[in-house]
Specification:
The structure is a homodimer of 132-residue chains.
Chain A lengths: L17 H7 L8 E7 L5 E7 L1 H10 L3 E4 L4 E4 L8 E8 L6 E7 L14 E5 L7
Parallel strand pairs in A: 1-6
Antiparallel strand pairs in A: 1-2, 3-4, 5-6
């Protein structure tokens, strides 16, 4: 921590420093960007949260998924208290660079309810509607 | 379309009407909720966009993923012009009901760049950092 340990990526390689990514991200007017967090083992979507520049930097340097807690107004290393850390294997960014995707190895569960994923409830099931 | 065709879900079943879901969703101060869209075939995250109540209702009734375009300020049936429709198989909502997950069968590609997913660029690859 503190020593970022990043080197400039060779041309053509999909590797950036935290500051290079932060320089490209289109943060909203609160300085935040939405982050989708996905389990690398089976691509299940675990949660969606928000990051600011500091959270992105901390994720790069520490390797653990870090967010900005809007309710607590503080940096939030997911699992720092519960032990349910998320080891980040990859960070992707979308075509217009206003959303991030953390691909992680989840220790324990992602949701504060004890469920594996925050998306554990279904509101709609389609099927037979695809030709409408 | 127009005839919603929804019935009240039997107790314990994870099925809602559009209005039941809309009544629970915590929309932001613009009346929007973020939507993560995931391919049911392999759980790849295709895109993140925004929905308002009308977009949710249209997704339920039409079966095609519908969003709210912030730039065009209009309802956006994904693929209506390009043919790259998203047939929605399931809509999930997260623990605090401020994010939706559309699970879809994507026709063609999701990204306007021609890539399959909007998350086609990687900024960071971890590994060996999990014990830091």
């Amino acid at each position: 921590m503190g020593d970022e340990g990043e080197v400039c990526p060779p041309p053509g390689e999909d590797r950036m420093t935290a500051d290079e990514l932060i320089g490209q991200v289109k943060f909203d007017d609160r300085g935040l960007v939405p982050v989708v967090t996905q389990d690398v083992s089976d691509n299940v979507v675990l949660m969606v949260a928000w990051a600011n520049a500091e959270a992105i930097r901390n994720t790069f340097t520490g390797g653990h998924a870090t967010y900005w807690s809007r309710s607590r107004r503080s940096l939030w290393v997911k699992g720092e208290t519960s032990g349910h850390l998320q080891d980040v294997e990859e960070i992707l960014y979308d075509c217009d660079v206003d959303t991030l995707l953390y691909r992680v190895r989840q220790k324990g569960v992602a949701c504060h309810t004890g469920e594996r994923t925050c998306f554990y409830r279904s509101a709609y099931r389609g099927g037979g509607k695809s030709n409408e």
